[in-house]
Amino acid sequence: MKNLPALRISRRLPSACALLCLTAFICLPTFAQEEHHHDQAPPAAAAKPASDDTDYNKLPPLPADAHTDQTTVVDGKTLHYTVTVGTLPVRDEQGKVAGDLVYTAYTMDEPNRPVTFAVNGGPGAASVFLNFGAIGPKHLNGVGNADDSASDPTVLSDNQGTWLGFTDLVFLDPIGTGFSRSLVAPDEAKKLFFGPTSDVDYLSHAIYDWLIKSGRITSRKYMVGESYGGYRVPRIVYELQSQLGVAMNGEVLVSPYMNPAVDSQPDLSPLPWLLTLPSITAAHLEREHQLTPEAMQAVIAYTLGDYATAIIKGNSDPALQQAMIAKVTEMTGLDPTFVKESGGRLDTEAYLREVWREQGKVGSVYDSNVTMFDPFPWSPWPKANDPLLASMIGPTTTAMVNFVTQVVGWKTDAQYNTLSYAVNEAWDRNSPATREGSVSQLRQTIAADPKFRVVIAHGWDDLSCPFMGSILTVNQMPVMGDPTRVSVHEFPGGHMFYTREPSRIAFQKIVEDMYSKH
């Protein structure tokens, strides 16, 4: 399928300031750049599964911090930078080291550089997706788009959408992801690391510790988070601002999961159906080569108008229901019988199979135009892994492991967890913090600092964290000074829209403009 030119809509808050997904990257890449290593340590033994009587604090130590000097060429300009792979100790309430957090930092030897901290989501995803996919100086080619093959050679190239030209970058891998690890027993680790409140607490302290360790406490400071990272970031920034005394300048939320309330109660509320219809329509428009900002503005207007009214009225107005079903059929290109039997309310899993059923394929929840053959086509429910994740994990993991151990020279044979299903399964989803989301913290941060800025970015064709969720959330926020301080933007692509270079570069320019305001 032909990629469209990069498109975007900048939605300035008319009223003021403006969900849960797993994402990451992995196989061995080819590197053409020169390498220069120093501060290397001998290889450390991999952390082996331990029995209940194991002293987890006696695991073999991870290597000392390692550095390498590299270059990347962006828009004809050569950037010279240092890559550091290092660790930060994570301590419990008694000050005892309970975990090792591993980070990858890209820094340039220039004065007055801002620094940006990056986290992915899951919970259970390492930061490699943002690193090699979106904003780091190198980009992993051939991953995340239609027809990409997981078995193709992995190659890193200069990232024309990197943010390194205007900010240093620090990618944090939460405990249990990447090479980061717990040093305490599983029950204690669950309490210290695998819940929304403890997660925010130790990651906030890790950022503080890196700033002190690196002598950067007076630098301008930003955060970026993707997916569940979009839940983390507003809460971490608020924690840093209100509890640790670290003033942040702004945050960027990529395909964020930040407001679980917008997709609740599908039997009573129109919100769940308002979230999915625009993204499903965008996917159809893209297949027809008709996806434009103007077309999507009309889709959004219909969704917030006649469609919402029809959903709310339900069977009390049969004529309105019939007209809505006809309109949804036209917008989505789906089989009329399927739309009619769905009542115009398009369930995500049902749609992902229905739209590609004749080809014997199934679409990805992260981008329904990324498909694979359905290995269980006669099953009443989907049984296979998501097509996009199934194609990404191998090349992403391999690329990161090779980069860290061979290019940077941080020698370890420990397992690298791009996506940790163990962390995801251990996560405390019953916490009130999970149900509350992070919109409250976002509002309070914006209210407390009149110069604080936020960019929220989505791909049109994302059904895991649909862009309408952010639009609806932002539209309900009060006016707090300059309404341009928070903006929502949409691009061609899905959850990881940045795998498409035109979208990635357009996104970079928006963020650079935001940084230039400080």
Description of the molecule:
There is one protein chain. With 518 residues, this protein is an alpha/beta fold. Helix content is 35%, strand content 18%. It contains 15 helices and 17 strands. Strands 1, 3, 4, 5, 6, 7, 10, 11, 12, 13, 16 and 17 form a 12-stranded mixed beta sheet that branches. A 3-stranded mixed beta sheet has the order 2-9-8. The longest helix is centred in the last third of the chain and has 22 residues, at 387-408.
Summarize the structure.
The protein is built from 15 helices and 17 strands. It is of the alpha/beta class and 518 residues long.
Shape: globular
CATH hierarchy: architecture of the largest domain:
3-Layer(aba) Sandwich
- Cα distance, first to last residue? 40 Å
Q: At the third CATH level, what is the topology name of the largest domain?
A: Rossmann fold
- The portion of residues assigned to helices is 25-40%
- Estimate nothing, just give the exact number of structural domains: 2
Radius of gyration from CA coordinates: 23 Å
CATH H level of the largest domain: which superfamily?
Answer: Alpha/Beta hydrolase fold, catalytic domain
The first-level CATH class of the largest domain is given as Alpha Beta
Mean of all residue-level pLDDT scores: 87
Largest sheet: 12 strands, mixed
- Which structural class matches the secondary elements? alpha/beta
Unreliable stretches: 1-53
Number of separate strands? 17
Q: Determine the number of helices (DSSP H or I, runs of at least 4 residues).
A: 15
Give the DSSP E fraction (strand runs of 2 or more residues): 15-25%
